[in-house]
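Curious: can you check?
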Amino acid sequence: MRKNSIKNTRINAEVQKELSNIIRGEIKDPRIHPMTSVMAVEVAPDLKTCKAFISVLGSEESKKSTISGLKSAEGYIRRQLAKNLNLRNTPEIRFILDESIEYGVNMSKLIDDVIEHDHLRSGEEEAADANEE
């Protein structure tokens, strides 16, 4: 089975949906931040392993505690996935902190700062040109 086959894509989407439901509604661990999202899931073609990319809106401390809470609840999450999904194998889950949203926000802020600086600079040049004339 190819990595990006239609079946694998469907399995990724289904696992992501179920994983989101389990994290949001069934886990009561206080270490897991309420603003936790499953951004993407990559299930291996042999269904043995799964990478779950997790985004946490909060401080670095809350991100670390959320990932450690999810790792400690991995067995429970895997059992719930096995119950809810009809798969030949229930994959072993690896939780990976996804910071792409924060990176994107930071890049957008940097671009806005450069544009603002450029506008201020061009405004100063226009004022200097007007004074020379």
User: Anything to note?
Assistant: Strands lie at 36-43, 49-56, 92-97. The chain has a mean pLDDT of 87.
